[in-house]
Amino acid sequence: MRYVVLIACDPGDWERADEATRQEYFDAHHAFERYVDERGRRTSSAALCDADLATTVRRDGDADVVTDGPFVELTEQLSGYYDVELPDLDTAIAAARLLPRAYTLEIRAVVGVEGYESV
Amino acid sequence: MSVEQAALAEVVREEWGRLTSLLLAHFRRLDLVEDALADAVETATTRWPRDGVPDNPAAWLHTAARRRVLDRIRAEAMAQRKMPLLVMDAEHRSTATAFADPGDLVEDDLLRLVLMCTHPALDPAAASALALRLVLGVSTADIARLFLVPEPTMAARLTRAKKKIVTAGIPFAVPSADVLPERLEVVAQTAYLAFTAGYAPGSGPDVVRTALAAEAIRLVRVVLVLRPDEPVLVGLLALMLLQHSRRDARVDADGGLVLLPDQDRSSWHQDEIDEGVALLQSASLTGPIPVRAAAYVVQARIAAEHATATSSDDTDWGRVVDHYDDLLALAPTPSARLARAVAVAEASGPQAGLDAMADLDDQLPRSHRLPAVRAALLERAGELDAARSAYSVAIDRCGNDAERADLLRRRDALDG
């Protein structure tokens, strides 16, 4: 199964963190990565810029409206993701539990879209 | 009911979960397995009256369902013009014909099925419905009736849960020993959710729906056979049996609610009380046990105090209050505090009870039970005007027809 693990956290957590806390974050991410490597495969991952620096393209009738900011306002914001292959949801949950405790994680299975083939 | 119908009903009731788990262990196709088993039962309803009940009814159903799954997989393969994608575990391949002798492997498969149905990634209400369907073989129509929802609603809920299992990759597996206890706690929570839905319908005409509570008890028994020393399951079964033992006394001839002090104790099910009390003495409950298990055990002890007293007056209310203090230390919920206030009133008089519930309004702003209890205590304390207005608040908030009728009767009696 292929899963995307979406990471949500309070914006500013990282900026406020001191060096020791940042090391704890790194350690947790390394633990996650080792766990996944032992049981499956990492495809990609990324940290994202703060949501207030996002740009939204909204389709309004025939016009496209480009605005500053994210498409939903939430207290927790999407701040990164992992794209991994693991045997099942239990393994994915166990991996996600290794990530820093300040995070809320959303696990989504990747699904094929019928009829679509990439060019 | 004919002999054949009775035999079929019994095998569905007793063996459905085992058959489902066995087929899932072979094929890992939740979508095909359940339909195939339902088809096999359908076939049996016409074949058994003609040919007689087979020697091993469960094995007959298993073979028929297995053929059906294979037919469907072949049809899919033909449609896709490729080899059948049979997902088979090598460990199960050799046992494919060994159903007649259900060994440890089959029991383990049944535990996998229960854990899959009650996975914490599923909505708890849907999980308990799914467990009734896949583990206990209760029909979708009956589950809908038990949960008081229209059949299409329940069918959609079950379909969504099954889709989530397949799409999200919820495994058909027993987790590692470090996670298994917390997963068994979820099994217990799921069963208790169904049980309490049977005993405290928030709305509608019935005071209790004992059939749903009975199915929840059956679910716990199935899992307890597989994990006999699990404290959370032992404590929960004791609690359920002690509460369930009073079912026939809780409703009067007109369908109205009968409260504990007024219940006819001769109609309590003594065998269930005995079993519940015996479970509380189990060796598995001695020594340190997890918090959730302890909460079930303490609630079961409270129920046992009531169940073993010969009358309401004879109840040791001081000990009931002590048990509630233990419960609040484990799980300080507002409803437990309200129940403790009732026990305090019995032990030390209505004013002490009123004092014990004085600061609960903020925590239970919509509950009809809080003003109902307050009204009864005010009535006993002789404050009739205050009791009348408390009954009115309770009547406004109450969504259950029988309970509301009882509250109206009590308010009217104040003026009589």
Greatest contact pair?
A: A-B, 12 and 10 residues
Q: Which structural class should the secondary elements of chain A be placed in? A: alpha+beta
Helicity of chain A, as a percent range: 25-40%
Sequence of strands across the biggest β-sheet of chain A: 2-5-1-6
Enumerate how many helices of chain A there are, as a single number. Answer: 3
What is the averaged pLDDT score of chain B?
89
Radius of gyration of chain B: 25 Å
Q: Approximately what portion of the residues of chain A adopt beta-strand conformation?
A: 35-45%
Q: Low-confidence stretches of chain A at least 5 residues in length (pLDDT < 50)?
A: none
Low-pLDDT segments, ≥5 res of chain B:
83-103
* Number of DSSP-assigned strands of chain B: 0
Largest beta-sheet characterization of chain A: 4 strands, antiparallel
Strand content of chain B: under 5%
The helix content of chain B is 55-70%
Oligomer: heterodimer
Radius of gyration of chain A: 17 Å
The helix-strand sequence of chain A is EHHEEEEHE
Helix-strand topology string of chain B: HHHHHHHHHHHHHHHHHHH
Task: Please give the alpha-carbon distance between the first and last residues of chain A.
Answer: 23 Å
